Amino acid sequence: MPALVPLIDLTPWFRGDAADRADVARQVDQALRTSGFLLITGHGVPPGVRARTRAVAREFFALPAGVKARYATTVGGRGWLPPGAEANGYAEGTPTPPDLKESFSLAADQPTGDAGIDARWFRPNVWPAEVPQMEPVVGDYIARMHALSDELMALCAVALGLAAGFFAPFLGHPTYEVNLNWYPPARSGQAPEPGQYRIGPHTDFGTVTVLDREPGRGGLQVYSEGTWADAPYDPAALTVNIGDLLARWTGDRWRSTRHRVLPPQPEAPGEDLLSLIFFYELNHDAVVESLPPPIGRTSFPPVVAHEYLASELDAITVPPPPPAGSSPRHLRADFRLRAEKLAHATPRGLP
């Protein structure tokens, strides 16, 4: 039986000969066909870089709520996503209460010259003045994640039997997002609502996601063979999974696998976790067309990257509070209808 999340050492990919690289590519193809997730070691990101990034993120989240509110934004923006801003389950049509987390969100910030595109996808990042080390430390982390993700896309191409540079023309000026996610302890005397998670069940939207996480009782779970299972953890490894765009591109050869982050558990109510997540995407105007057989097995309609991503991000945004005198029940129904419309309109390649 294949491992739930296979562990793959990338050292032979970076330092080996052609046979070594081919063997790593074979392992990646197998992992993404069966799991959609993998743990990677030999990735070249020093432990100290990861630790410093987590430390400055914790410094920000420890600030008073009133200070963090100066940097408040919405899903897809730059800055602080407060509690209650996001509900990831809605992206797949699963009505859930808002996710139990805070995030500090960053993204690609080099403009294209197209004002409309830049306003949505390449606006300047926001850096909190109260944490002056955040910009240099997190900026260095982002640059390393970008370089690693480019290498992972080359590895993915070889794993598909394509030239290593196959995806490169679609990655010249890509969009990407970075979430520093804080999963705070349970509130005293307040249990999570039924169906509420730190992050609700969902698949990712882009190409590859690179996650540096902490282990915990209320941690990452992966959906496999009809059930949810705790994702394995290795302190030296980064967790990698693919998103919907890459799954569509491979014609569902590879799986964009559902996952979630559990709420604080009764046996560990004081648990406090922090994840660093790099969501890699594509050039905003890239057209994703399913690869034909023998690589692909399903042909999805072509999609333009930024249009597809915008619809997904809009789906997980919790609407603002209802106007005075309106019904919260009506608001929830409206949000559910939006999610159901998206789920039925967009092939997602879910298991």
List the helices and strands and how they pair.
Elements lengths: L6 E3 L1 H5 L2 H17 L2 E5 L5 H15 L3 H4 L10 E3 L20 E6 L7 H7 L12 H26 L14 E10 L15 E4 L5 E5 L7 E5 L2 E4 L7 E5 L1 H6 L9 E3 L11 E11 L3 E2 L14 E2 H11 L12 H18 L6
Parallel strand pairs: 1-2
Antiparallel strand pairs: 2-10, 3-4, 4-5, 5-12, 6-11, 7-10, 7-12, 8-9, 8-11, 13-14
Helix pairs in contact: 2-6, 3-6
Q: What proportion strand?
A: 15-25%
Question: What is the CA–CA distance across the termini?
Answer: 18 Å
State the major sheet: 8 strands, mixed
Q: Summarize the helix and strand pattern as letters.
A: EHHEHHEEHHEEEEEEHEEEEHH
Number of strands: 14
What's the CATH class label?
Mainly Beta
CATH superfamily heading: B-lactam Antibiotic, Isopenicillin N Synthase, Chain
| Count of DSSP H/I helices | 9
Q: State the helical fraction.
A: 25-40%
Label the CATH architecture. Sandwich
C-alpha geometry: globular
Radius of gyration, CA atoms, in whole angstroms: 20 Å
Report strand order across the widest sheet. 1-2-10-7-12-5-4-3
- Low-confidence residue ranges: 324-351
Classify the fold: give the CATH topology: Jelly Rolls
Number of domains: 1
Structural classification: alpha+beta
Q: What does the average pLDDT come to?
A: 89
